[in-house]
Amino acid sequence: MVSITAKAKQRVVDTGESLVSTLFEYAKKVPFVRDRIAAEYEKMMKDIAGQVRPYAADYPTYTELPEQGRDREAILEEMRNFHGLEADRWKDGYVSGAVYHGDREHTSFLDQAYAIHSQTNPLHSDLWPSVTKYEAEIVAMTADMLGAKKAGSGPENEVCGAVSSGGTESILLAMKTYRDWAKAEKGITSPNMVIPNTAHAAFYKAAEFFDIQLRKVTVGADCRADVKGMKRAMDRNTICLVGSAPAFPHGLVDPIEELAELAQKRKVGMHTDACLGGFVLPWARELGYPVPPFDFAVPGVTSMSADTHKYGYAAKGTSVVLYRSKALRRHQWYTVTDWPGGIYFSPTFAGSRPGGLSAACWASMQAMGREGYLDATKRIVETGQKIRRGIDAILGLKVLGDPLWVVSFASGEEGLNIYEVLDAMGKKHWNLNGLHRPPCVHLAVTLRHTKEGVAERFLDDLREAVEHTRANPGEGSGMAPIYGLAGTIPARGAVSDLLEMYLDAVYDL
What we know:
Layout: E1 2-5, E2 10-11, H1 15-27, H2 31-52, H3 72-91, H4 104-116, H5 129-145, E3 160-164, H6 167-186, E4 192-196, H7 201-210, E5 213-217, H8 227-233, E6 238-244, H9 256-266, E7 269-273, H10 281-286, E8 303-306, E9 319-323, H11 326-329, E10 334-336, E11 344-346, H12 355-392, E12 397-399, E13 406-411, H13 418-426, E14 433-435, E15 440-444, H14 454-471, H15 480-486, H16 492-507
Parallel strand pairs: 4-5, 4-6, 6-7, 7-8
Antiparallel strand pairs: 1-2, 1-5, 3-9, 8-9, 10-11, 12-13, 13-15, 14-15
Helix pairs in contact: 2-16, 4-12, 5-12, 6-7, 12-14, 13-14, 13-15, 15-16
Pfam family, one: Pyridoxal_deC
Family: Belongs to the group II decarboxylase family. Sphingosine-1-phosphate lyase subfamily.
GO biological process, one term: sphingolipid catabolic process
């Protein structure tokens, strides 16, 4: 099934889904229905509210500036207390993804690198040329890792890029670039992009922000992009195709070669989203694991995104967006020549940016080196395979696809609710990723999980969680009911309402 959405107008092939959504919105306007819905929302939010404001009872809440500045040491002590309350969970490997290295020596090193450059700003390259050196070298090192030398010769194969604030910005930048390239080079004014429905949500955001029609194609039975389906979804206004290496939900690499060949034939862009795998897959391939072609060595791949702040082990807040040519990248740049404030130009969406993050990223890549990344990848993939085999051995669960280190699993037993298993794992201190379509859960293995005993603890706890859920069906709380709702067509409007309420709660005191 292909669903198509646009900023100004939504068009969904599944008309039944649209009808139910419309009816739900009308029903909310009926007073007694609205009151019933509000009561149900309140029940669901009650469990979640405590997660958003866990310190409300024990620490003061500041709604206005203190009359006199507080003692700096007292402020730092309060912050250390928060850190102490939160750090053990990720340090002990209870979290999927989120913190990818976490070793005290490494994080201390990054802190020092950031501190040296805490006052720098890449926007002012004339004041801080050291930061522009770091960023140019980050891009070059990442490009080299992702097949730049095998891309071919000539200016059309001169792989280049920029440093962004994270994977979402890298994806947004690439999609904005394709929109502007297609308008300038092909005269396309009603652009669309074709993606597998497992592509990152940042592509949905890009479509809405930049008024690009989004054509989502349901993945095949193997949870990988359906190339034939994506081909059918293309037309003369298609500006790019998208594939993931791997996709966030199931940890599987899309058929990038086939998608790139299709893109090349149609003379459109092809973006490989390697935000999650860009700093793992090249090393896994070198270690002998079966990694399908996905980078600039594949003719037709015209851009990529790779997160340095994930498996690149940099501090949070950096990513790299790459292009096959400088001519394509030029459509990313932003310049203003007639502003009274002077000539203005910036490479990404932000103006001022924290140079300390780029410095820490460069420092991390320098400190890791090839051997460091190879060793880290070896440990991560070995642990991922151990966890995968362990999940396969648990009665009632099934692993989706053939993942290397991002392991997604679903219920293989009628009546066993995977979201209640997720909730039971949460009560055992685990923070895992709940997914849907199909309902499943995943663990993104990091260096935290390679510590002795962590994989075994995860599997033991998961086995107990499955047994508990089987013996106590319907007991799920917290996010479990919301994930359950999200998997049903009539509840999509309700889920959106709840998520908006959650975001409200994040900023409400």
